[in-house]
Specification:
The complex is a heterodimer of chains A (163) and B (584).
Chain A: E1 2-10, H1 15-25, E2 32-37, E3 43-51, H2 54-66, E4 70-75, E5 81-92, H3 96-107, E6 111-115, E7 119-126, H4 128-138, E8 143-148, E9 152-155
Antiparallel strand pairs in A: 1-3, 1-4, 2-3, 5-7, 5-8, 5-9, 6-7
Chain B: E1 3-5, H1 6-16, E2 21-24, H2 31-38, E3 44-47, H3 51-65, E4 69-73, H4 77-81, H5 83-91, E5 96-102, H6 118-122, E6 128-131, H7 138-150, E7 156-162, E8 171-173, H8 193-205, E9 209-213, H9 215-219, H10 223-233, E10 237-239, E11 254-257, H11 264-272, E12 275-279, H12 285-288, E13 299-304, E14 318-321, H13 324-341, H14 348-364, H15 383-394, E15 399-402, H16 406-414, E16 423-424, H17 435-445, E17 451-456, H18 466-473, E18 478-483, H19 488-497, H20 514-520, E19 524-528, H21 534-541, E20 551-556, E21 566-567, E22 576-577
Parallel strand pairs in B: 2-3, 2-4, 4-5, 5-7, 6-7, 9-10, 9-12, 10-11, 12-13, 13-14, 15-16, 15-17, 17-18, 18-20, 19-20
Antiparallel strand pairs in B: 1-8, 21-22
The chains are: A alpha+beta (163), B alpha/beta (584).
Chain lengths: 163, 584
């Protein structure tokens, strides 16, 4: 089962490598990973998606909590949550393709953020499955390059994760 | 405020932490630190012959004293040589602080001479690590390192020290903090009261309960309440390899070690129990065998200071996160209250029936009653009898370290440990070469104590250079070399699983003359080959005449002996091979 684990950790050199090292060392899988400082400059917020049954996820959260620099660990998928991923796609765009890509981007509420006479760069934001759907819709042939941010998320409502 | 260089601050901080010994080996990046050591007397430096030995000495010092051990190595190869020792301490949850020199900050990342990424290379085998950024933060980093190493589930901590942060030409005000707090690190200090009540209910309701305790009881100084609980409820007790000594081995309620080479009664009682009371143990694969077949009728109460150890391998009915000492003490109070209210809850009849069953297993096969390993009518010494002779010669009152292999299992099976912190071995990582430096660390911690290292001709050669360190510091330890002319445990597996194809496990007459080797280092070497002479030679090793000498006893033992019981791989705990011809 896919899970979104959200981790608040000390914004210190080496903290991220401990998290990533833990996953490698214990044979846990990382599907995506995103990390950046928070409004409190001493803290980073890391969001990762992983696969595993309940027992595995319990071990993952317990092992993450053991890392000295990890302040809080939350499994967002345990409750109602909002998740988003950002994707930039560079597409071959010549002739009739140009209008077709524009239409498809509109349907997915995407934006064309860069254009040349042979290529468009489209930005799409949403849940990961929406991004997957866009890629299927434009078709493999026109895709030149894809970059995805990995999933970020927050719990719905007033619940917050803080130090 | 006093002004100190970073190097001086580091050593002063160790003094303030009450450190007695630094086990170490110098090198370029560590020389400012070594100069600071030279200019004080409070902390004694012990020069080893290989950094791995320094870490094992620090580790064993910690195991017997309960205080963190300290090792100091230089950058590059010094640091990498310390990694095995870190991993050894990490697997057994031993508090240790390893200080590694590092190249100066502006050279880090340039592939400079003797540079290695110590923080990176040690990351999977440390509880935490630090790289010192400036002389100003030196004292605080040391304080944090000792706090982390010794609190919660203990473990090794690395402090990587770039040479420029120890520069004698740069002085900063020194202040050693009384305490530190880390917002992200708050180990549990007591168990949840509701969980403790649940555990008491389960204990009182169980018909066939058993205590399974591990190294956590020793590390957590919880022997006393453990014994009290076992006595109060007349519970059978088994210990893990790491937990030996937590419950007195000569007590009738002790069933022996459990697991792969556990005793027949211990493994049978575990398998047939209806409640496992686990304390400070982690259901390691050498204990459970196939987890799916593990103790099918048993519910589990699991007390551990590390929540990640609970329900990791075996699902737990009542998890209790907290230090063993505190949880067991509170549990005893709750238990007494319950029994005061309702004394009828103590089901003596069920307990008697359970003990009758256990006594049956004991009669069937027990080390004490086992006649197979006696030397009588044998021309060659059985390795098990070496440990029995050692037990007799030391009155069961020595500190015993061991290496890894058959001799380690024989020591665990046949030496009866009646007190915690007396049995010192690498249980989790299984590090050959551990025993000799471990014995040295113990001897330095307790100079008056009798310290013996039970080793084999394979393991001893992995750190034999330390015989020189023993000479330098006058460490009269006793080395009992159970010499079967082969890597015995490997050969046993090859006998049992590979049709006797001894691939890479024999030396082809290349072993040294250990007696002459010990003598060349200035020690006493003895050899015994005749079973009839074993006891008298062992007595000589521990005789007053040789009290102040290191004695290396080379014992020629039966080359074909196997360690039994040995479980059937992939089976349940009750599936054991009991001898070359018998199965459970």
């Amino acid at each position: 089962m896919r899970r979104i684990i959200s981790v608040l950790l000390e914004n210190e050199a080496g903290a991220l490598s401990r998290v990533v090292g833990l996953f490698a060392q214990r044979n846990y899988n990382i599907e995506s990973l995103t990390v950046a400082p928070t409004e409190d400059a001493t803290l980073s917020r890391l969001t990762l998606t992983t696969l595993g049954d309940d027992q595995k996820i319990e071990q993952i959260t317990k092992q993450l909590n053991k890392l000295i620099e990890v302040v809080k660990v939350v499994d967002l998928t345990e409750g109602e949550h909002v998740e988003r991923e950002l994707m930039l796609v560079k597409l071959r765009a010549v002739g009739a393709q140009r209008a077709e890509i524009k239409r498809t981007a509109d349907i997915f509420r995407g934006q064309i953020v860069d254009a040349t006479d042979a290529a468009y760069t489209v930005q799409i934001v949403g849940v990961s499955s929406k991004l997957d759907a866009f890629l299927r819709a434009v078709g493999e042939l026109s895709i030149l390059e894809v970059v995805r941010s990995g999933v970020s998320g927050l719990a719905r409502g007033e619940k917050v994760v803080s130090a | 405020m006093e002004l100190l260089s970073g190097g001086e601050a580091l050593i002063r901080a160790l003094q303030d932490e009450g450190v007695e010994y630094i086990f170490g080996y110098p090198g370029g990046a560590a020389l400012h630190i070594y100069d600071a050591i030279f200019q004080q007397q409070a902390v004694e430096h012990v020069l080893v012959r290989h950094e791995q030995a320094a870490t094992h000495m620090a580790d064993a010092y910690a195991r017997v004293t309960g205080k963190p051990g300290v090792a100091l190595v230089t950058s590059g190869p010094g640091a990498t040589n310390a990694v095995t020792g870190l991993a050894t301490a990490f697997m057994d949850s031993i508090p240790m602080v390893v200080i590694s020199g590092q190249v100066q900050s502006d050279l880090i990342g340039t592939d400079s001479f003797q540079e290695t990424d110590m923080v990176g290379i040690s990351r999977p085998v440390v509880k935490h690590s630090f790289m010192v950024k400036s002389a100003e933060e030196m004292a605080e980093v040391v304080k944090k390192a000792f706090y982390i190493a010794s609190s919660g589930r203990p473990g090794p901590v690395v402090i990587d020290v770039p040479k420029d942060t120890t520069d004698p030409g740069y002085r900063v005000p020194y202040h050693y903090p009384e305490s530190v707090s880390l917002r992200s690190y708050n180990p549990a200090t007591r168990g949840h009261p509701r969980q403790i009540r649940k555990a008491v209910d389960l204990l009182l309701a169980a018909k066939r309960p058993i205590i399974y305790s591990g190294g956590g009881v020793i590390q957590g100084n919880a022997s006393e309440p453990l014994i009290a609980l076992a006595k109060r409820l007349n519970l059978p007790v088994t210990n893990t390899l790491m937990g030996l000594g937590a419950y007195p081995s000569t007590d009738p309620q002790f069933l022996g070690m459990l697991g792969m080479h556990g005793s027949y009664p211990a493994n049978m009682a575990m398998h047939h129990s209806d409640l496992i009371f686990a304390v400070g143990a982690r259901f390691d694969d050498r204990v459970t065998n196939d987890p799916k077949k593990f103790c099918p009728d048993a519910k589990v109460i699991h007390i551990d200071v590390d929540p990640a150890s609970i329900s990791k391998i075996i699902p737990t009915e009542v998890p209790i996160v907290g230090p063993a000492l505190n949880v067991l003490t509170e549990l005893l109070t709750v238990l007494e209250d319950r029994l005061l209210e309702a004394p009828e809850l103590l089901d003596r009849q069920a307990r008697e029936a359970w003990w009758a069953q256990i006594e049956g297993w004991r009669r069937h096969s027990d080390f004490d009653h086992d006649q197979r390993h006696r030397n009588e009518a044998e021309a060659i010494i059985k390795p098990q009898t070496v440990v029995q002779a050692l037990y007799r010669a030391t009155g069961g009152d020595a500190y015993i370290t061991s290496d890894v292999g058959q001799h380690q299992m024989f020591a665990a099976q046949y030496y009866r440990f009646d007190a915690p912190r007396r049995w010192v071995n690498s249980g989790g990582l299984g590090t050959m070469g551990y025993g000799l430096p471990a014995a040295m660390g113990v001897k330095l911690a307790f100079p008056e104590a009798v310290v013996a290292c039970v080793t084999g001709e394979g393991s001893i050669q992995m750190n034999i250079q330390e015989l020189s360190t023993c000479r330098q510091y006058g460490l009269p330890i006793k080395i009992i070399n159970v010499n079967n002319q082969a890597l015995g445990m490997v050969r046993q597996w090859q006998d049992m699983q590979y049709a006797g194809r001894h691939s890479g496990s024999v030396y082809q007459d290349s072993l040294p003359d250990f007696v002459a080797l010990a003598e060349s280092y200035g020690h006493v070497g003895l050899r015994v080959t005749d079973p009839a002479k074993l006891d008298e030679t062992m007595a000589e090793v521990f005789s007053p005449a040789l009290r102040d000498r290191l004695v290396f006893l080379d014992v020629a033992v039966d080359q074909n002996e196997h360690v039994y019981p040995m479980w059937v791989r992939g089976g349940a705990l009750c599936d054991m091979v009991l001898s070359k011809t018998e199965r459970s």
